[in-house]
Design goal:
The structure is a homodimer.
Chain A (H helix, E strand, L loop, with lengths): L2 E6 L7 H16 L3 E6 L5 H12 L8 H8 L1 H16 L4 E4 L6 E3 L8 E4 L2 H8 L3 E4 L3 E3 L5 E3 L4 H12 L4 E6 L20 E3 H12 L4 H10 L3 E5 L8 H4 L4 E4 L2 H5 L6 E17 L4 H11 L4 E6 L6 E9 L3 H16 L3 E14 L9 H11 L6 E5 L2 E7 L3 H11 L5 H4 L3
Parallel strand pairs in A: 1-2, 1-9, 2-6, 3-6, 9-11, 10-12
Antiparallel strand pairs in A: 4-5, 7-8, 11-12, 13-15, 13-16, 14-15, 16-18, 17-18
GO cellular component, one term (chains A, B): cytosol
Keywords (chains A, B): Amino-acid biosynthesis, ATP-binding, Kinase, Lysine biosynthesis, Nucleotide-binding, Transferase
Protein name (chains A, B): Aspartokinase
């Protein structure tokens, strides 16, 4: 008998029929002797509908009270938990739903992007011990003053992992519309392989690099509290044998050696919609990085890679990447507020680039990963424009037309293909 | 300067544009120096949509956990308060929204039909004193264990009056889609007159008789706590002079003499969809009424009028009316569970009847109202099938084909027409 948390995304909760399927799956787990807490998202489209109403009322979203936005947006999950409770009761499984404030899930006061501070497990445990399924709203909590807060988009993943940490669950199962974490996007590389296990550090790099399976903060949470978290598909039939389900998908682990046996590199991640910007011949003085990125951050532009190389003759070139949608705005900020102020010679940019990364915890102890990556790209005629590395990741910026080519070649050279299909390559 | 509560129904909150109109009206009141608390309903159709989802999941509504239904249904008003706060802020008026549990509005634990027990006015007063409009969800509260409860359909009226009582508001303005309480339905009698004032006892009789302007419990609440309550139209332009608005609609008062000057009868109320049922020759023994109505109540059938006349030869005829939709069910219960058990001779019924009532606090001190009513109906050829009276009301059951005729004739004979139109009659 295990104590598990199930998390279901908006697609899994997207219709009455799908909610009934979720209920059947959960009931099956209970019948097999497990205690289950469920954290569902809002029905797909609902959060957008609600925020759309607010935007219709006040087109200038900057002016809008984030407190009121949270008041509105949090209702989507509240409807979901009630409907799921009713669906479970309809098939004879006792269940009870709670909004975040009822548990309570305590957060700080940062509306629309709140952080969970604590979760009281008392009420949850009482209900579980009474044989009930406990259903808790994802995405939201309550601050010390009793105001409703939300955790930001994708926050239900974080809610689920945090609940799992609070009740010391044996495992947190994230049911989603993919059946696990892959070595790369199967739409780009046909024989991409599903990983049985991935370390949470690798998952962290994959998530932030655009794999988009889990909200990155949920992965951080899983790491911090060592919550065994499994990503698996909610689209597989729910009459599947429970033992199969409990071993399917991809498990995010904390023991390095479990995943270390075979692969140096676990996957090839990529981001399509990048733009790069370089300030040429920036005087290399203390504080110059802040003088460049301060105004950019102030304009609410997220910066991804940042690269500054060794200076020559007292100047250096300073580069960074942004999302393609923010390229124009970023260029304008640099031209008007930064360039002359810091005495840079020129601002150049390119919004036709992408980022490709090799991620793997095995990289730490293996030399030669970077050189194999660069050699492979060179042989394919792909020019590398920028390079950035971390302990378990190497990222390159290349022209976006080479994205598929680069991902496929790297996937091949690092032996990531499915076994069955290696024969046919 | 006054402290007022505004209540807006689902139609007034039915679209983004209408919510913006509500905001303009509220802001106008604040600019004129008043403190305003607003209690809005869910956007029209929203509560039905939410409960419809629940019913889709569990077609057999009887099995559904009322706790979960309240969890779901309460979200409609939560969206409304957030949107209205945003609409007020967008036009420069500081505002803050609260769900019932945040105030808190304490209720008992009777899910889907909870009763308000207390309302804490501390948070409301602090916000009002800080210059904010306070927006509180209608229809809902929280029980002692922190569960969300709802007050039942139309409960937002009760919420508004209860909030007005708690903060000792000068007046509770119920904005609705009619511009006040009329002497009868203007669709039946063209020259029906709007009443400037009506006593709460009269309003109570009118509401329960199907005038449907205010939820009856809100009128009881207004009476109990002596809340001056005004019914007025939200469809009049919100740039109306505030002094006009403050004196429009119909005021529900507690001082008899204010409304006593002219009329004996204040209005003619009616209910179209009635059915009557009679048990013939029921042995007149103690407890027989309970033996008849117990099984009916157990089948969840609401009973309206109940009439039992003097017995002759040890038996009596026992009659009552139900909503037409429940006629068949009620007949079945009586035939199978009651008739033989109590030794009644026969069960007869008619679902083609209606109820017409003359209501007026002046009736108390005026003899002859009943006889004038019966005489008028007789002269129009309307046969009276049942009669029931209270201190301020006389109700008759007649064949439903006579409804319009009866209402018009009674409206005329009790001098209820608009002055301007009396000339043309």
């Amino acid at each position: 008998m295990a104590l598990v948390v199930h998390k279901y995304g908006g697609t899994s909760m997207g219709s009455v029929e799908r909610i009934q399927n979720v209920a059947k799956r959960v009931a099956k787990w209970v019948k097999a002797g497990h205690q289950v807490v469920v954290v569902p998202s809002a029905m797909s489209g609902e959060t957008n509908r609600l925020l759309g109403l607010a935007k219709e009322i006040n087109a200038d979203a900057q002016d809008m009270s984030p407190r009121e936005l949270d008041m509105i947006a949090s209702t989507g999950e509240q409807v979901s938990v009630g409907l799921l409770a009713i669906a479970l009761q309809a098939i004879g499984q006792d269940a009870v739903s709670y909004a975040g404030w009822q548990v309570p899930v305590r957060t700080n006061n940062a509306y629309t992007k709140a952080r969970i501070e604590s979760i009281d497990d008392k009420r949850i445990r009482q209900d579980l011990d009474a044989g009930r399924v406990v259903i808790i709203t994802g995405f939201q909590g309550v601050d010390a003053q009793g105001n409703i807060t939300t955790l930001g988009r994708g926050g239900s993943d974080t809610s689920a992992v945090a609940v799992a940490a609070a009740i010391k669950a044996d495992e947190c199962l994230i049911y989603t519309d993919v059946d696990g974490v892959y070595t790369t996007d199967p739409r780009v590389v046909e024989n991409a392989r599903r990983l049985d296990k991935v370390t949470f550090e690798e998952m962290l790099e994959m998530a932030s690099l655009g794999s988009k399976i889990l909200q990155i903060r949920s992965v951080e949470f899983a790491g911090k509290y060592r919550v065994k978290t499994r990503v698996l598909s909610s689209l597989t039939p729910h009459d599947l044998d429970i033992n199969i389900e409990a071993h399917s998908g991809t498990l995010i682990t904390f023991e390095e050696d479990e995943t270390m046996e075979q692969a140096v590199i676990s996957g090839i991640a990529f981001n399509r919609d990048e733009a790069k910007i370089t300030l040429m011949q920036v005087p290399d003085t203390p504080g110059v990085a802040f003088k460049i990125l301060g105004p950019v951050a102030k304009a609410n532009i997220d910066v991804d890679m940042i690269i500054q190389n060794q200076s020559t003759n007292g100047t250096t070139d300073f580069s960074f990447t942004v999302h393609r949608n923010e390229y124009k705005k970023a260029m304008e900020v640099l031209e008007t507020e930064v360039k002359d102020a810091i005495g840079a010679k020129e601002v150049i940019g390119d919004d036709k680039v992408c980022k490709v990364s090799a991620v793997g915890i095995g990289m730490r102890s293996h030399v030669g990963v970077a050189s194999l990556m660069f050699e492979t790209l060179a042989q394919s005629g792909v020019n590398i424009q920028m390079i950035s590395t971390s302990e378990i990741k190497i990222s390159v910026v290349i022209a976006d037309k080479y994205l598929e080519l680069a991902v496929r070649e790297l996937h091949k050279v690092f032996d990531l293909e499915q076994d069955a299909q290696i024969e046919s390559v």
